[in-house]
Amino acid sequence: MQVYIRSAAAISPQKTFDGATFLGDPIEHNSTRLICVEPGYDTIIAPKLIRRMSRIIRMSVASALTCLKDADVASPNAIITGTAYGCLEDTGIFLGNMIRHQEEPVAPVAFVQSTHNTIGAQIALLIGCHGYNNTFVSGGASFENALTDAAMLLAENDKGTVLVGAMDEITDMSYAVLSRMGLYKRGAVSNLNLFDSNSKGTVGGEGAAFFLATNTPSANNIARIDGVKTFYKPANTTEIEQQIASFLTEHNITANDIDLLITGNNGDVKNDEIYTELQHSIFIGVPSAKYKHLCGEYPTSTGFALWIAVNIIKTNSVPAALQGSRTLRNKADKLLIYNHYQNNFHSLILVSAC
Amino acid sequence: MNTVVFVAGVGVISAIGNNLPECIGALEKGETGITDINYLPTNHRGSLPVGEVKLSNTELAALSGFSPAASRTAMLSMVAAVEALHNSGIGKLQGLRTGFVSANTAGGIDKTEDFCIDFINDHNKGKLRDMLYHECGTITAMVAEKLGIKNHIVTISTACSSSANAIMYAARLIKHNMADAVIAGGTDALTRFSLNGFNTLMVLDEQYCKPFDEHRNGLNLGEGAGYVVLVSERVASMLSNDPYCTLSGYNNANDAYHQTSTSPEGNGPFWAMTGALKMANLQPEDIDYINLHGTGTQNNDSSEGAAIEKLFDPAYPKMSSTKAFTGHTLGASAGIEAVFSALSVQRGFVYPNIRLHTPMAEFSFVPETEFSKRPDLRHVLSNSFGFGGNCSSLVFSKV
Amino acid sequence: MTDLKEQIAVQLKLKNIKPEDISTDAPLFGEGLGLDSLDVLELIVLLKQIYKVKVSAEDGPKVFRSVKTMAEYITAKQAQHI
Predict the structure, then answer these.
(1) Which CATH superfamily is domain A3-214 in?
(2) N or C: which end of chain C has fewer CB within 10 A?
(3) CA-based nearest distance A95→chain C, Å
(4) Are residues B178 and B314 located together in one domain of the fold?
(5) Which sequence positions of B are flagged as catalytic?
(6) How far is CA A310 from each of CA A6, A211, A340, C7, rounded to the nearest angstrom?
(7) Residues 75-134 of B with CB under 8 A from A
(8) pLDDT at site B74
(9) Which of B366, B292, B344 is nearest to B23 (CA)?
(10) Do domains A3-214 and A225-352 have the same CATH topology?
(11) Are B58 and B127 in contact (CB under 8 A)?
(12) What is the CATH number of the domain that holds B36?
């Protein structure tokens, strides 16, 4: 796999959009629900068009259009999105209306907007992109599948560009349901102290991140994705170590070659055990950084992690906002993202300077 | 890169049968599966015809091995996937890198609906376990676990073209040597969400649908699941049964015209079809049968027809929409129709476009109205066009 | 008429447009507000839910030509019920 990243844009619960410094001014959230910092959309999306867009669609479209603009690409060859929940707000609205009106006809827009590929379709519609358009909804592997699809497409086509995105939102309904399922911390906690409490639960998050991927080498490329792997419900730590080991071997590297390991700790003591174990075994001595205190926990958070990795490579620095050991081994040459979502899908993304 | 992808197995469940022989039998006899609503608890019973699988959740649970409290979407998926798996013979081979690429649009929303009825007025109410099935990806993962598949557990959701995109992705995993054998296709259960959603779009026919008829009035929703087992050439050579056919071409293109309507000229459909033919290295005259998307809506049949006219005129292949049998099964439609198409090219089956009384005046072609057997069928084209302008076409070729 | 304009603005989420900006006679579709086929369906629901008046999909384009034609249709249909 050799997928160059030309540009990246993200809207998150931090100031990551609108030309802000690279996580220079982290926002403290005292809540178990981290909500995105949304930009003013007037200069990005025409008011006439934005009227139907729910939050997730607006955030995704804005990130996508900005990403394309930064890459100087008017229309890519393909648009691929990864989202576990899709357009949750619209789904909830339509369901609610349907139940309240006892299946009498209600307004259709929320139904139309609730289809999972609406985001990819809206982007295509806005820029007149007639190319390949796909949406992955594989829970915690949605974004990784999208990256794999993009990589295959780029291997199949000369001089190709693929717009790849990850997005998920939190709504009143999803927050209530996931809270009842015991996913979150009891009582408010500062996200900046997420990893200090040694207790059950995490904080909910959301975000949209887009990348312009290409197979064309260029001085304008900011990073390169060398490998993506997911594995499902590993039986034990040994199996996880084996999966990681074979991934490293496949890419001709050892743990010593990794300048920074970005891990998906989410503040839940049980969830985070594996990261500690691996940092005493296969990842021993590898500098590491945590990111979920900034964006919260959600199935496609690796989109945000990749945005961070790409920017670390671009700036050759690790922002103080990340937590963990945080210093690079040498320069920002090889970064590895390792994350799991609720021990269902585990994922590895290897990102290099180019 | 591997270059050839074979269809080694197929599995299907729909309104016209609970397995492959039953479905093909119904297609041959011209027996529609569209009826009044029998199972779905909805206020539209008696007013909207649908293509329901003729099994209750309890019966499907027994067939699939899932709890009766699980999502119907998962049950349907399991039944068809198991048939495809057994049918392919890959279970007898050791050391295969397998995968399960499944599509759906509704996920477990049939259970979410139940939850919401109580939750909506009091956020502390509603059976929490009903929400465990909500995500599209969860349905796939549940079935993959039961099938014993641990890698390439992938879910795709692009409205009505979903399963076609799943089949394409699976084929590419094999071509890129990332997998040896992949079960690919899709599933969708009839839900109040979809039924009411399409009803608000005023595209449902209150009578039995008439795809490609001049006086068509809309679609009937259906449910079901359909999977093909795609394998590499190396794996195909190791299996005792001959493959059904090859997947010789595919393409996905975006109409980018409107959120729910297709462009009147059928641009997206045209690009999807031409791209699939190009990959298969075929000319339009090489296609012997088209399994149309043919939903029965004014818009789809007009646009799809326009695209077909542009591509094939004056030499049209035989064609039909099987949605008059099964209803429009949304995320499952391309998977179910892929199974029908594979059988078509293998056995020379040309299915009838039932309930077609008055051909569309704007076109010179007329879909088939009778079932026939054409042993000289070489290549079959299957179309699936979805919301968001997502247009996919698959080409199946005789081995 | 102003009520109807306000209801249209809310139903179709025309946030930046005030009721007084919606001309009574100007076409709602094409130029004017630039509404589309999904908006037709939204307006059909609006008329049913608020005014208890039914519009078929075929009548949609005629009825929704402008705010004026909408208002006239509502008045006519409601008179039929009296």
Answers:
(1) Thiolase/Chalcone synthase (3.40.47.10)
(2) C
(3) 16
(4) no
(5) 160, 293, 328
(6) 10, 10, 20, 47
(7) 105, 107, 109, 112-113, 116-117, 119-120, 123-124, 128, 131
(8) 98
(9) B344
(10) yes
(11) no
(12) 3.40.47.10
Q: Residue A146 has which token pair?
A: 């999208």
In this predicted model, what pLDDT tens digit does every residue of A241-252 receive, in sequence order?
999 999 999 999
Who among C14, C45, C48 is closest to A51 (CB)? C14
Taking any CB pair shorter than 8 Å as contact, residues of chain A touching chain C are: 47-48, 51-52, 101, 105-109, 112
The amino acid that residue B221 corresponds to is L
> Is the Cβ pair C12, A51 closer than 8 Å?
yes
Q: Do B262 and B156 share a structural domain?
A: no
What's the residue count for chain C? 82
Query: CA nearest B106: which of B130, B85, B80, B133?
Result: B133
A254: left (phi over 0), alpha (psi -120 to 50) or beta: beta
Cβ B8 vs Cβ B236: under 8 Å:
yes
CB contact under 8 A, B176 and A152: yes
Topology adopted by domain C2-81: 1.10.1200
Residue B335 has pLDDT above 90, yes or no: yes
A225-352 architecture in CATH? 3-Layer(aba) Sandwich (3.40)
Contact yes or no for A263/A309 (Cβ under 8 A): no
Domain boundary among B238, B258, B287: B238
Same domain membership, residue B268 and residue B234: no
Q: B24 and B153, same structural domain?
A: yes
Kindly state whether B5 is in contact with chain A, defined as any CB-CB distance less than 8 angstroms.
Answer: no
* Beta-strand relationship, A78-82 and A132-136: parallel
How many residues belong to chain A? 354
Q: Are B119 and B251 contained in the same domain?
A: no
Domain coverage including residue B222: 5-238
**Which candidate in A137, A152, A168, A348 is best for mutational testing of the B interface (most B CBs within 10 A)?**
A137
Note the pLDDT of residue A134. Answer: 98
Residue C39: both structure tokens together:
């908006």
Cβ partners under 8 Å of residue A43, min gap 6: none
pLDDT at position C82 = 60
Task: Decide if C2 touches B, using CB distance below 8 A.
Answer: no
Given the cut 0.90, state whether the ipTM is greater than it. Answer: yes
C57 neighbourhood in chain B, CB within 8 Å: 202
Residue B262 DSSP one-character state = P
User: Does residue B270 share a domain with residue B168?
Assistant: no
Tell me which chain A residues have a C-beta less than 8 angstroms from the C-beta of B131. Answer: 177, 181
Contact C15 A109 (CB under 8 A): no
| Token representation of residue B69 | 């409290």
B202·C57 Cβ contact <8 A: yes
Between A294 and C80, name the one with better pLDDT: A294
3-class SS at B143?
A: helix
Q: Which of C12, C16, C48 sits opposite A105 (nearest CB)?
A: C48
Distance (Å, whole) CA A291 – CA A321: 8
Q: Where are the domains of chain C?
A: 2-81
B281: its two tokens: 């290295």
Among the listed residues B215, B164, B143, B214, the one whose alpha carbon sits nearest the alpha carbon of residue B329: B164
Q: Specify the pairing of strand A3-11 against strand A207-214.
A: antiparallel
Question: Is A180 a residue whose pLDDT tops 80?
Answer: yes
Q: Which residues contact C58 (CB under 8 A, 6 or more apart)?
A: none
B75 plus B152 within the same structural domain: yes
B144 touches chain A (CB under 8 A): yes
